[in-house]
Design brief:
- The complex is a heterodimer of chains A (515) and B (364).
- Chain A contains 13 helices and 14 strands.
- Chain A is an alpha+beta fold.
- An 8-stranded mixed beta sheet of chain A has the order 5-4-3-6-2-1-7-8. In chain A, strands 9, 10, 11, 12, 13 and 14 form a 6-stranded mixed beta sheet that branches.
- Chain A starts with 14 loop residues before the first helix and ends in a 9-residue tail after the last helix.
- Chain B folds into 2 domains: 7-30 and 63-140, Arc Repressor Mutant, subunit A (Orthogonal Bundle), CATH 1.10.10; 146-358, Dna Topoisomerase Vi A Subunit, Chain: A, domain 2.
- In chain B, the strands form 6 sheets. In chain B, strands 10-7-13-12-14-15 form a 6-stranded mixed beta sheet, sandwiched between helices.
- The longest helix of chain B is centred in the N-terminal third of the chain and has 20 residues, at 7-26.
- Chain B starts with 6 loop residues before the first helix and ends in a 6-residue tail after the last helix.
- The relative contact order of chain B is 0.10.
- Classes of the chains: A alpha+beta (515), B alpha/beta (364).
- Chain A binds chain B through residues 469, 472-473, 475-476, 478-480, 482-484, 486-488, 490, 495, 498-499, 501-503, 506, and chain B through 14-15, 17-19, 21-22, 25-26, 28-31, 63-64, 66, 69-70, 72-73, 76-77, 79-80, 83-84, 105-108, 110, 112.
């Protein structure tokens, strides 16, 4: 399956051309999906951009205008740092900015392709450029029309205008055709709703094609920490990877290349490696041969390395997720489980977090009153390819019946998978691959959350049963009181009160006010 | 303490029942009362009194028990109704009571009771709890059966002789508590299973030549008949002789007459006539009187009945009964009392009964 890393080989040819022919790999297949993807790219970009600023809480404005049948305009505006003129082309008009590709860092999307892909899509379907309006908050606003030169793989800025005004941030307007706006599981509304859940520090105002405005307020008032850049871990690295890193290394010797460019390779480990390989590690990294690299990879497998560091991961966070869920779903019961970081495929760190929300506005999967399962990777909602996703498989593998969850229980399940490298099943696919360690972790988190929910529901059910039982007694009080009053000649009202207090005492454990 | 069997006694017991519950309430306790258990495993044969009696095991019916509360309410409902009926001198049938007290429970779609199985069970429970016959609570039993013979009784201001009512006898009502036995002229009381046989005997003037009061229950004797027999026996001291079909059912009818029934274990002392005897039909009669020709084969159900009978304690108490059941099994036949017509129509009245009674050819 092609994955972003393989785009490297297309550096010779135009990547923009590649897009034109293979846009489904970037998410532009299907009318509803394509519209959602455009919004996704811009919003993801925006959150990342604003988070670059230290003290700024991101605020976004998203509007979808219907211009005709299957013809829309997508407008996204943020309160970010704004983009200097020289960088506009790079940010939005160039596909594969290159260096970002090999960054070992937790990222929201496929950096380097995203926003440009959306611009490309607009261009290809309407022939029109994307309008960019931006300002760094210095009183000067820049407006221009951005289009991508497919042959040269670079951006062109036309109709540039600068004027003064109060603005800080970027506004981008792209016209697109052959897309469809639809409410429901794959649509923009759902995408935005879920994005806010995973990014509770984001304030979002959304205007839909009908002109209706929804404002999502922040659930938390502080920024999440930024994920640190990670270095690759020796275990799990392939020969190809190794050669690639070696080519790019600044180190003079292979020995220091291993120590500096990898994580968990100490001097001691380097010595251990040298003892096992047939060649000299004092060679220049650039001189590393294929079979030598192969030897190294095999040696890595034999050696015990410390597990990769995990501060490179930034999940949503237990407290933040709780607040987000509370804000949006106002559930009767919620629980958040955050697992400890683990590694899959030998070396790639990941962490799973799960939230369950019951009652209130939870559940109701688009009106079906079903259990709603939301998938996220690196805080980005995954809407498509549900069936193939490891998250879906894990959710399905749990015996929810054990936790008193039935088919029509108003439940929302939220799973966020965070990693420096998310193993998608394919390019453009929004599903996580079926790795055993990943599924295991998700399952464990779900079951732990499930147990808590189960205890709550069982307690609730019990309470309901107790209440019903109490009601049963109460229905027999009037006749009993009347009969007893008649036989003894005593006051009926008094007898009734006595019986009521007997019942009340028996059920004193449950509160009076219940739903 | 009011006179036993009197109206006052009933009222007293009902009021006491209510007061007891009220007292518990005043002490802030959840009210409850005890009911003697009457299930098969909770009855025993009292060999001294020779009746089937309750073991004394009681079950509690409590208001604050979810599986009791409905019946608790219903029991009080019946008690209050009984008081009313007694005070107003009204008698009601079980079915009338069921209708009379059936109403919606406030705030629900349920009723005080849904069918008369519910109300019947509660009536019996109250009987057992208070030690009162339901007739004493003015809830009358079915009337069936009659008495023919030289006996004068009085009820509701009417006096009459039970041989001066035309060709039939006096229909015994369900409630005989207010019947007074004024006078009689007989040596024995004959309890007859079938009405047809009673008619036969009436036609033959058997009350006279047997010096007997002829009572029929038309099958299994209903409460009224049983109660009447009991009172008759107690007040006249005349021996009771039972005459049924020669089959396991007839014999069972006799056993209930003599020792009471399991269902009424709580009140058998007022129904059972332990010193009664059985004249026939027996298996020996078949041989003795040449009735082989008019027997009938026992079917599967009858055979099962024989087995059931033999398992009862009170049957085992009488070796002669076990003997009789065994004979029945062996012969594999039954003999109806009306089969005696095979000899001649008046055989039963002129030969069979007089002979056997004279010679005291009875089973105990």
């Amino acid at each position: 399956m092609p994955d972003p890393e393989q785009f490297q080989e297309f550096q010779e040819h135009s990547v923009a051309e590649f897009f034109k022919k293979n846009r489904q790999m970037l998410g532009y297949s299907g009318k509803i999906k394509s519209l959602t993807t455009v919004v996704h790219e811009y919003v993801t970009n925006l959150i990342d951009a604003v988070e670059e600023e230290e003290d700024n809480l991101p605020e976004a404005f998203v509007k979808i205008e219907e211009l005709g049948p299957e013809h829309y305009k997508v407008i996204v505006e943020d309160n970010g740092p704004g983009i200097p003129e020289d960088y506009i082309g790079r940010a939005f008009g160039q596909m594969l900015a290159g260096t970002k590709f090999h960054r070992f860092m937790q990222q929201r999307g496929q950096q380097g392709i995203g926003a440009a892909g959306a611009v490309m899509f607009g261009q290809v379907t309407t022939g029109k450029p994307t309008k960019v309006i931006t300002s760094q908050g210095d009183g000067e606003i820049l407006e221009c029309d951005l289009s991508i030169d497919v042959q040269e793989n670079k951006a062109t800025l036309d109709n540039k205008k600068t004027y003064s005004g109060e603005m800080k941030g970027t506004r981008i307007e792209t016209e697109i055709k052959n897309v469809l706006y639809q409410k429901g599981r794959y649509g923009v509304d759902e995408y935005l709703r879920r994005t806010v859940l995973a990014n509770p520090h984001l304030k979002l105002t959304y205007v839909d094609p009908e002109g209706k405005t929804v404002v999502y307020d922040r659930a938390v008032q502080d920024l999440p920490p930024k994920p640190k850049e990670a270095k690759p871990h020796p275990q799990g690295v392939t020969v190809d990877d190794l050669l690639g890193y070696a080519m790019q290394s600044n180190s003079q010797k292979i020995k220091s290349f291993l120590k500096n460019d990898f994580t968990r390779v100490s001097g001691k480990k380097a010595k251990e490696i040298q003892d096992k390989v047939s060649f000299d590690l004092n060679k220049r990294p650039g001189d590393l041969e294929w079979d030598e690299a192969e030897e190294l990879v095999n040696t890595f497998d034999e050696i015990d390395f410390m597990r990769p560091p995990t501060d490179v991961l930034v999940p949503i966070g237990e407290e933040r997720l709780k607040k987000a869920v509370e804000e949006q779903l106002e559930p009767e019961f919620k629980t958040v489980i955050e697992r400890k970081p683990k590694a899959y495929r030998g070396g790639v760190p990941f962490v799973v977090e799960v939230a369950l929300a019951y009652g209130g506005k939870a559940g109701n999967d688009n009106g079906d009153d079903e259990i709603e399962a939301m998938r996220f990777s690196n805080r980005v909602p995954l809407l498509f390819n549900k069936g193939s996703c490891a998250i879906t498989k894990s959710v399905d593998s749990v015996d929810w019946d054990r936790y008193a969850v039935k088919e029509n229980t108003p439940l929302t399940i939220l799973v966020n998978f965070t990693s420096i490298h998310v193993p998608y099943i394919g390019a453009g696919k929004k599903a996580i691959a079926d790795e055993e360690e990943i599924k295991k972790e998700i399952r464990l988190a779900l079951m732990k959350a499930g147990r808590k929910l189960g205890n709550y529901l069982k307690g609730k059910r019990k309470k309901k049963q107790r209440l019903q039982k109490k009601k049963t007694f109460e229905t027999y009080i009037p006749e009993t009181a009347k009969s007893l009053a008649d036989i003894t000649g005593k006051d009926e009202e008094e007898i009734r009160k006595h019986l009521e207090s007997v019942v009340k005492q028996r059920f004193s454990d449950i509160e009076e006010n219940e739903d | 303490m009011a006179e036993k069997g009197s109206k006052e006694e009933s009222l007293e017991k009902l009021e006491e029942f209510g007061e007891n519950l009220l007292e518990q309430l005043n002490k802030k306790e959840a009210p409850s009362f005890q009911i003697p258990s009457r299930t098969r495993s909770n009855v025993e044969f009292d060999e001294e009194e020779k009746i089937i009696d309750i073991t004394g095991k009681k079950s509690t019916r409590s208001f604050i028990n979810a599986s009791h509360v409905r019946k608790f309410m219903q029991t009080l409902l019946v008690a209050k109704a009984a008081e009313e009926y007694i005070e107003n001198d009204r008698n009601v049938s079980k079915r009338e009571l069921y209708y009379n007290l059936k109403r919606k429970l406030p705030g629900t779609s349920k009723n005080t009771w849904e069918d008369d199985d519910e109300s019947s069970a509660v009536i019996e429970d109250l009987e057992a709890t208070l030690g009162l016959l339901r007739q004493q609570m003015n809830i009358s039993a079915k009337s069936r059966g009659s008495i023919y013979g030289d006996i004068t009784i009085k009820q509701a201001g009417d006096e009459f002789s039970c041989k001066k009512l035309g060709k039939g006898g006096w229909a015994i009502p369900g409630n005989v508590e207010d019947v007074d036995i004024l006078d009689y002229n007989a040596e024995r009381i004959l309890f007859i299973e079938t009405e047809a046989m009673q008619s036969r005997l009436i036609e033959e003037g058997a009350y006279d030549n047997l010096d007997a009061l002829l009572v029929t229950g038309q099958g299994m004797a209903p409460r009224g008949v049983k109660r009447f027999l009991k009172r008759l026996q107690e007040e006249t001291n005349l021996p009771v002789i039972a005459f049924t079909d020669g089959d396991p059912y007839g014999f069972y009818i006799y056993s209930v007459l003599k020792h009471g029934s399991m269902q009424l274990a709580h009140v058998n002392d007022r129904y059972a006539v332990p010193n009664s005897n059985f004249v026939g039909m027996t298996m020996e009669d078949i041989d003795e009187y040449g009735l082989e020709n008019v027997t009938e084969e026992l079917d599967e159900q009858a055979r099962k009945k024989i087995e059931h009978n033999m398992n009862y304690e009170w049957f085992k108490y009488h070796p002669e009964w076990i003997e009789e059941m065994k004979k029945m099994k062996e012969k594999g036949v039954r003999i109806e009392q009306q089969a005696l017509a095979n000899k001649s129509l008046d055989f039963v009245a002129k030969t069979y009964l007089p002979e056997k009674i004279e010679n005291k050819e009875f089973l105990p």
